[in-house]
Design brief:
571 residues; five-stranded antiparallel β-sheet
């Protein structure tokens, strides 16, 4: 929807570049995909962004920009059905970087230099280095010494309930600059990187700040063997790359090429996460220990023992594989999804699962020495999710493989009620095509919108005050003013129209948002962030941090979720 941001390079400069390239014999015939990149590279927005990053005193800005650029063409971001060898007319990272070899500018030289150290493909990296060696541009001294970057320390931040760990890397650039990478690995989802970011802060200082802000007695900070840190992060990146839909945040996976480069600087041969091994005998012993304890004796019955088998199945086979580990998050997963979808039993038996789970949580936490406050918090999660759980188990629902296909709008194709009939894969693929069509409809706002979609830009239109209560006009006006200012300076009139429409929809949908106290800057940032994410705006041309920096806020995602709900959109 939103056209690239244009920034101030003069026509004279563009003509001079074109003339220089012609004189150097660089106007050879290219395939269509390289011509597209060549034209994009001449546009002032990308070149100007690279130039601005190159002019910064700290190297991190340019390194982050190149990481985001490389991630844009990373095939791991594609839907699994689209992960195939690229056709001759399709853009790939290799083709994109090769096109930069043909464009002899200081900015492309900088990108090639950084990319050459981030690339894991040594042959491709060597090609980048040869191209850079033949150029005469004056570059910052640190740029040619990036290969001397050292990842020298790793710290693991762990919470006692074990939902996930942060691996923090301390890195020293050859200039002496210190940076730190924070990688969050989610164990509930099977040990995947769920978020990561890099900051220009020395690791010891960063950890001291985090400890001060978190102030949590249940969180520990431990130095981690460098080889183990590498093994854990690399495994988690791989698992995350095969998870679909992928996890996305303001900084991930844009920072993935950067994180992978820093991790490659650590020693190899370390140990990843070791999944606990629970034998049949171990499970039987745990079951008996629980039902003979003060917590389990009151719920000891054949139906509860049957349910306990299912709960222990969840505990050993899902998440980190520890049936003694219970937190509010995995309580939610168990009650809102796993038991209703996986466990075949009568409603009367399923009804009692929350009571037995409460008893088992008390037993596990007492056995592990978990603080009472955390036990209370986990039990409150059972209270929170029980009404929804009781509703689900009393409702018609698919289970097992049927539930998976139902979630994708792909019903199982079986012979008429024949027990054990297999899935008709041809029919399933037809349903999959319908599913993908439904995804497109949802992405643009409905079937009718998709049918009438065209390339015409949104008109430049005024803000619509219809239906917005008078008492919130002042607050809405202030948010509107900030959004308009951002669009005028960073974006364009089409983006402004989209922001105005969304803001009006929020104000009509839930005017109480603007009656409550709250920073208007954060509200405006949330509006622009939502429209940017919906239109795939963020990338090398405009980083999320640039947008948030305009409003002088650090995050907008939480407020954005509130606004989306007010507008009637599932966050």
């Amino acid at each position: 929807m939103v056209s690239p941001v244009s920034r101030g390079r003069s026509d004279k400069q563009l003509k001079r570049q074109r003339r220089q390239r012609k004189e150097q014999g660089r106007r050879s015939q290219r395939s269509r995909h390289l011509e597209v990149v060549d034209r994009q590279s001449e546009e002032p927005d990308l070149i100007a962004s690279i130039g601005a990053a190159l002019s910064q005193a700290h190297p991190l800005r340019l390194i982050e920009l190149v990481s985001a650029l490389m991630n844009t063409l990373d095939t791991r971001n594609l839907h699994p059905t689209e992960r195939r060898p690229a056709k001759s007319d399709e853009m790939t990272l290799e083709r994109f970087l090769n096109s930069f070899i043909e464009i002899d500018l200081p900015e492309t030289t900088a990108v090639l230099t950084v990319a050459s150290v981030m690339l894991s493909d040594e042959l491709q990296a060597a090609r980048m280095r040869r191209a850079v060696a033949s150029r005469q541009h004056a570059m910052p001294g640190w740029l040619g010494r990036l290969s001397g970057t050292t990842s020298y320390r790793a710290v693991e931040m762990v919470h006692v309930l074990g939902d996930g760990d942060d691996v923090i890397l301390g890195v020293r650039l050859p200039t002496g600059h210190e940076i730190s990478a924070v990688i969050y690995i989610d164990h509930n989802m099977g040990g995947v990187v769920k978020d990561a970011f890099v900051v220009d802060e020395e690791i010891g200082t960063l950890i001291a700040l985090m400890q001060l802000q978190i102030g949590d007695p249940d969180t520990t900070w431990t130095d981690l063997d460098l080889g183990d840190a590498r093994a854990r992060v690399e495994e988690a990146v791989v698992y995350g790359a095969i998870t679909f839909p992928p996890f996305e945040t303001d900084t991930w996976p844009m920072s993935r090429p950067l994180v992978e480069w820093l991790v490659r600087g650590l020693p190899s041969g370390g140990k990843g996460y070791v999944r606990p091994e629970w034998s049949t005998g171990d499970i039987a012993q745990l079951t008996e220990d629980f039902f003979s304890s003060e917590y389990g004796v009151a719920v000891d019955s054949p139906s509860h023992r049957h349910l306990m088998q299912s709960i222990l199945w969840f505990g050993t086979d899902w998440g980190p594989g520890d049936p003694l580990r219970w937190s509010p998050v995995n309580v939610e997963m168990l009650l809102s999804d796993w038991i209703p979808r996986k466990v075949y039993a009568e409603v009367a038996e399923l009804t009692t699962a929350p009571d037995m789970l409460r008893a088992f949580i008390r037993y596990c936490h007492q056995r592990q020495g978990i603080r009472l406050a955390l036990t209370t918090e986990t039990l409150e999660a059972v209270d929170l999710w029980e009404p929804e759980y009781q509703r689900i188990i009393r409702s018609p629902r698919a289970q097992g493989v049927d539930a998976l296909f139902e979630a994708m709008d792909m019903p199982m194709q079986r012979e008429a009620d024949e027990p054990g009939a297999l899935l008709d894969l041809d029919a399933a693929m037809l349903d999959f095509n319908e599913y993908m069509l439904s995804v497109l409809c949802e992405s643009v706002g409905g079937e009718e919108t998709l049918r009438t979609l065209d390339e015409r830009p949104l008109p430049d239109e005024a803000f619509d005050w219809t239906g917005i209560p008078d008492d919130v006009h002042d607050r809405v006006s202030e948010v509107l003013r900030l959004c308009d200012s951002c669009c005028e300076q960073l974006l364009d009139s089409e983006f402004r129209t989209a922001c105005r429409r969304f803001l009006a929809r929020v104000a009509v949908g839930d005017p109480n948002i603007f009656r409550r106290r709250g920073a208007t800057r954060t509200a405006a940032a949330a509006v622009c962030w939502v429209i940017g994410r919906a239109n795939n705006l963020f990338g090398p041309d405009l980083l999320v941090r640039d947008l948030l920096g305009f409003f002088e806020v650090s995050s907008a995602s939480q407020r954005a979720s509130t606004f989306l709900s007010a507008a009637g959109i599932d966050p």
